[in-house]
Design goal:
It is a single chain. Helix 1 (21-37) links the parallel strand 1 and strand 2 (40-45). The chain is globular. It has helices spanning 21-37, 49-55, 79-91, 93-106, 119-127, 139-147, 151-161, 254-259, 270-279, 293-304, 312-317, 324-328, 345-354; strands at 10-15, 40-45, 60-63, 72-73, 76-77, 111-115, 131-135, 165-168, 181-183, 207-211, 232-235, 245-246, 263-267, 283-286, 307-309. It has 357 residues and is an alpha/beta fold. It has a seven-stranded parallel β-sheet with strand order 3-2-1-6-7-8-9, sandwiched between helices. It starts with 9 loop residues before the first strand and ends with a helix.
């Protein structure tokens, strides 16, 4: 029972506009809340809005920018352009918070889940609405590493402290800026098809996913042809590379394609890593220079022996393919990984969120 009347709880997701990884895991949690709580879900998102709408039929997805992330130049953060975007973003906060307060009150939202947009926590605090974050990193960490302690980082810290708590995903940074931190297992969209059920995927040769993420320029793959001899390359929908298999642009359940692979060669992105761990697919990961999250992601994957760091140049020229067999052999180490990666974090989050509404 909510507000003294029988009705379905209303949960509003605020999703980072930086890439599609935040959206992918939030889709998994939204589906869980729909199934177990019969929750009414509404989503506030910018870049991933269309993807989320196609993945969550019947869910209202409202488009609008939430955060600027960072500006990438190839595989490195462009500090000057990022700083300009972040300062402009901070200047918009008061108007954003005022508008969201009206929206949340009008929609009678019962709970806010933010990944990991800071401003909604301030709106929730002013309205007395419970709010939780879910992430493995904060924008406070990213911008502090890039720019030091500034007005921006102070304001972000204030917003995160306004949250009732945060659900810490595996491979997380300390996230000490939050008051209440709860560790959960892996959150990833469930695999629904095996390789034989995806007609576009050929058999007979190793299948390698070559991922850069939408925040990276597809030009980093320009000289990749040298890798084509020993395997079949699977690439994202926005990469047009002759001789490869391309994930269809209208595909929503990309986790099925990741699970079909024998190896992941990618930038260090959380959704790709979590879906690879779920499916026991080893990884070769390159670092995004200047993006602090990668220390925790690449470090954790390497420590478990389920992947290795490679230089971005090895992705560009295809030289990683010389180690194809040894990289694929890392699959055997999945038997020894920490138990937190074997837990169903999606259900754990559902139980915690269910206790808040």
């Amino acid at each position: 029972m909510v507000d003294g009347r029988l009705r379905r709880p209303r949960v509003c997701f605020y999703v980072s506009d930086f890439g599609y990884g935040h959206a992918a895991r939030d889709i998994a949690l939204a589906r869980e809340l729909q199934e177990t709580l019969h929750a009414e879900v509404v989503v506030r998102a910018g870049l991933p809005a269309e993807f989320m709408a196609r993945s969550l039929p019947g869910v209202e997805v409202l488009r609008g920018q939430n955060d600027p992330g960072v500006v990438m130049e190839s595989a490195a953060v462009d500090r000057e352009r990022t700083l300009a975007a972040v300062e402009q973003w901070l200047a918009s906060w008061e108007g954003y918070i005022a508008a969201e307060k009206v929206f949340l009150r009008d929609r009678r939202v019962d709970l806010i889940v933010s990944d990991i947009v800071p401003q909604p926590f301030l709106a929730a605090e002013e309205l007395g609405i419970p709010s939780f974050g879910i992430s493995n990193f904060t924008w406070h960490l990213i911008y502090t590493r890039l720019f030091g302690k500034t007005e921006v980082t102070d304001r972000i810290a204030e917003a995160y402290r306004a949250a009732d708590g945060v659900l810490l995903l595996p491979l997380h940074e300390p996230m000490a800026v939050f008051r209440d931190r709860r560790e959960v297992g892996l959150v990833a969209r469930a695999v629904s098809r095996d390789r034989t059920e995806i007609p576009a995927l050929p058999s007979g040769r190793p299948l390698v996913y070559l991922g850069g993420g939408r925040s990276l320029d597809p030009a980093v793959f320009r000289d990749i042809r040298t890798a084509l001899d020993g395997c079949t390359l699977l690439v994202p929908s926005w990469v047009n590379l002759p001789g490869t298999v391309r994930i269809p642009p209208d595909e929503t359940e990309t986790q099925d394609w990741i699970a079909a692979c024998d190896l992941i060669v990618s930038k260090s992105g959380y959704s790709t890593i979590s879906e690879a761990i779920q499916a026991r697919v080893p990884m070769a990961l390159f670092r995004r220079e200047g993006f602090a999250e990668d220390d925790y992601l690449i470090g954790g994957v390497g420590a478990m022996g389920i992947g290795k760091e490679i230089p971005a140049a090895a992705v560009e020229d295809g030289s990683w393919a010389a180690d194809l067999e040894s990289l694929m052999d890392l699959r055997e180490n999945f038997d020894k990984i920490d138990g937190v990666f074997k837990r169903d974090g999606t259900k754990e989050c559902g139980i915690i969120v269910g206790g808040m509404v």
